[in-house]
Specification:
With 308 residues, the chain is an alpha/beta fold. Helix content is 33%, strand content 24%.
Length: 308
Amino acid sequence: MTIKIGTRASKLALAQAQWVKDKITEHNPDIRVDVITITTKGDRIINKPLSAIGGKGLFVKEIEISLSRGDIDVAVHSLKDVPAELPDDLCIGIFPEREDPHDVMLSNGNISLNDLPNGSCIGTSSLRRAAQILHYRSDLKIVPLRGNLDTRIRKLDGTDIQAIIVAAAGLKRIGLIDKITQSLSFDYMVPAVGQGALGLEFRLHDKQTIDTLGFLDHYATRVAVEAERSFLMELQGGCQIPIAGFAQFKENSLLLSGLVADPDGGTIFRDTVSGPPEKAKKLGASLANMLLDAGAGKILESIYGNNL
């Protein structure tokens, strides 16, 4: 049996695909695994903020097209890049165990967020990160920062940027954990939906491949991201608006936190729900409607119009 993995060509994406490949061959040495790189729209357009490009699935659409037509057998995604709604013929069938979901700060001189001088420039490609940082410290200046993870890290040298905010998971997967200055608490930086998790996408009816890779599925991760993605779907979220969602187990319950913010961080709607893990999707939808009722709907309408 041969399994073809499709992925983006960035250093991080290749590391993630290689991790999946290694797990497959360790579990079943008779399977041949090939990694195929695919360039996405988000990879091609690097001179604009993601929010300015528009649309959903900027880092997955071309990979999904290859998957649908059979060029690859499984796509390995950073789950936070995957829209809540998938093509009708595809499914996210497997969720490996989640890596650290925190956002982290890297700064010149290893200065913490609290200690950055007034007016310091922070680089980030994420409206979600920018809004939460500005809500916490409105004196800071956000500098749009695109490019692969290693490219963004290099921006700390020879520019006016004093710090950047990235995902801890990416740094750990490419062996750069020593670069971290500060892990940002969930209290003031709710992660992106699916952050730290991988999603393995398949053709819906390719039962053989799904069953073959089923050993990679991690129940706690699956339940958590199902709640988060249900929250995102109910909000019809995309990269044009700051939305965050993170679920974790507390004893036998699932605790889901969600956030919708103005892009400038001036107004934030945030709440938390908890319930049995078997009702993960209902928890996500319930939390979304709580935030909409609290006023978050006005923020979404200002971006999306009256299509909610």
